[in-house]
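Pilot study result, target chain (559 residues):
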Amino acid sequence: MKKSFELKGTLAAVAVVALAGCSQSEVAVVSTGIESPSEVGGPVVMSRLTEDQYRNIIEDVFGSSVTLGGRFEPDNRVDHLIRVGAGQASVTAAGLEQYDKMARSLADQIVAEENRAQYIACAPADATKPDSACASQVLSRVGELLFRRPLTDTELNEFVTASATATQRVDDFYHGLGLGLAGLLSSPQFLFRHEISEPDPNNPGQMRLDAYSKASRLSFFLWNTAPDPALLAAAENGELHTQAGVQRQVNRMLNSPLLEEGVRAFFTDMLEFDRFDTLAKDATIYPKFTFAAADDAREQTLKTIVDHLIDKNGDYRDLFTTRDTFLTPLLGSMYRVPLLAPDGLPDAWVSYEFDQDDGQAGILTHASFVALHSHPGRSSPTLRGKALREVLMCQIVPDPPGDVDFTDFEDPDHSGPTVRIRLTAHSTEPMCAGCHKITDPMGLALENFDTAGGYRTTENGVPIDTSGELDGAKFADASGLGQVLHDSPAVTNCLVNRVYAYATGRKATKAEEEWLRSSVKDRFAADGYNVPQLLKAIATSEAFYRVVPSEAAMASAQH
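Predicted structure:
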């Protein structure tokens, strides 16, 4: 559980405590950043907070007892990542109303009489009159955490003045303070991440992110939330403008329990798990696939990823072959495996290892994948194969033509009892054959799993053939497919590309793509495909913080 930041303490004190809590071995540098040519870098980004980031920040600053009263603007996926789409997102008038509603609700809870001692470290001289000193103390501390940097004198004066004006109107200091807090919470400086560049004094003619922008980029990358007081202090004292300082902070953050939240956020984005919010199956055919089952399916895969990559420090590729996972009794019934929950805990998670003959091997055989990439009433080798190509291998599969007739494929009586047989109707159609050739052989390997994740060996009384090939590598079943993906360079290369785009909030520039291909991917392999080491290599590289004009801006300047 995330720890709420104590508003009564000073930023310096919190920073000292945070660093003191790391042992010498934890702080020790394991790997250094990857050197990069001076042209490697990209433009600054302004991106809207995602719903998860907003929630995380509020919990970090105010604790988990506050509630949000409003709806969020929908997130936008660009280049397969919501994190990249956030850089192209805006706020509609209706969305602004919702943000304002949430801000006022939160502010009311913070200044409520029963909560003041927890959140407000000072008391006004007279609760019926303005007190600029107390209001300034509270708003500056909260504002620094929300804005991810200290408020300017002008900004602080505006919020303090607004609070004083409101206090005079209603003769209530706390009501006025609440208005100032609501202003912070509805400000574009909070709702959007504004990266700022500055000249790099160590490299004349080059630009870099300023210290607070570095802190934000680093924190949202590794923790999916705003910088904590220790990281803000490192920005304030100039530590983040030194390689040793960046190393210390990255090591501290990688040793923090908050790393789990960051890893979960990345894989939730990469695997498109936000789609579970609207996922539904035909209840008549699959009565067990409820909203609770969908939540468990998503959580199963995330737990498996965290356990393998963080707790066990495992090889990323083994996610596609491992039989170790976690199940609830509900998932156990879906997978048709016996599972006894602890007494009195019917919904508890239990570690579980599938047997060799269970047919389950790797996260691609989890209900989270096969159910997410299927139709409500039937499986889809094409959707599953498309997801494998696009999500895990970063390859492009064109959308089908708008005038394709799916009648033959959807009618078993007309075109055959198994999906493999029916798919020949598309593979023999010239305008369909190209795409189906690269998707269906992979997707057919997962046909032992129905659209709800249940295991089966026949379809309409006919044995299911799960053999196939991926780029010339043949396999017999889902387990074999997992091994082929394990051994495919495209899978690990794709992860590096996705991690970097997620970290920067934008598509990599051409120079960055070359750097990733020539340096970062080799380092990832040398580190045994260890994901925390990949995060560290990127987060400690100079390229991660270097600012260069975007290619579009450079092209525009030449005309």
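One observation from the pilot: Residues 1-32, 552-559 have pLDDT under 50 and may be disordered. A full batch analysis is planned for the follow-on phase.
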